[in-house]
Amino acid sequence: MCVVLFTSAEPLYLPRYLQPIFEAHADTIDQVVIAPFDASPAEQLRSQAGMYGARAGIRMALRYGRSRGLDALPGQVARRVTGRYHSVPSVARAHGIPVERIPDVSDPTFVERMEDLAPDLLLSIVAGQRLPGPVLESANDAVNLHGSLLPKYRGRATAFWPLFYGDDRTGVTAHRMTERFDAGPILAQRAFPLDNADTVDTVYRKLAKVGASLVVELLAAYPELPAERPNGTTPADYHGLPGPEERRLFYERGNAFL
């Protein structure tokens, strides 16, 4: 079986998400493709600042910086010190999986390579770019793992919105990929409860744990996949990053980012 996994370079939650998957299925994952977000670093910084605000934003920036610093240590030093990996490349390479950064997954050269490879399965976990039709068509199957119980909360900030709206649970959805974000037929879902102690940070950690478990199960069963069911999404289900007003209401309701 040939699996190509598309993801991004987020250092805090994705290494936690991917490590159990690689531990269980490194022999079937041929390549990890880091497909970074289309926005420039400055644009991403502005968006994150709008979501987190000054106080939580500074704390998140310090966490990112710490992860970058730990990842720069030689060998397995950071792993021995903290018990985990601090970047997607480090966790992939530790399991013998090649990693490649592709700035534009619609580049004709990359598309041609994927067509020549003809993977059995494309797996997307927080990839920064939409996979175009020719890439999706290069494989027998293409599955995305989304951090909400679709059709609710298509889009981004999937740990924020369930807390913002006071939901009593959230979870992870595996769905077939289409050229529309988070809109393909649903294959499987795993839910977990939310409580008053949850923060955006704890929800992201739970999403990583539950999502990893679901992926391990799906890969173990492949090529058998659960029966599809409709993903009755509407434009109102899409949510982007929250802005200052949503952040103000979030705090007023007693919620927290960290």
UniProtKB/TrEMBL annotation:
It is an enzyme of class 2 (transferase). GO terms for molecular function: methionyl-tRNA formyltransferase activity. It comes from Haloarchaeobius litoreus. It holds the Pfam family Formyl_trans_N. Residues 106-217 form the Formyl transferase N-terminal domain. Coiled coil: none annotated. Gene3D superfamilies: 3.40.50.12230. It comes from the Archaea. Its EC number is 2.1.2.9. Keywords: Transferase. This is Methionyl-tRNA formyltransferase. The lineage of its organism: Archaea, Methanobacteriati, Methanobacteriota, Stenosarchaea group, Halobacteria. SUPFAM superfamilies: Formyltransferase.
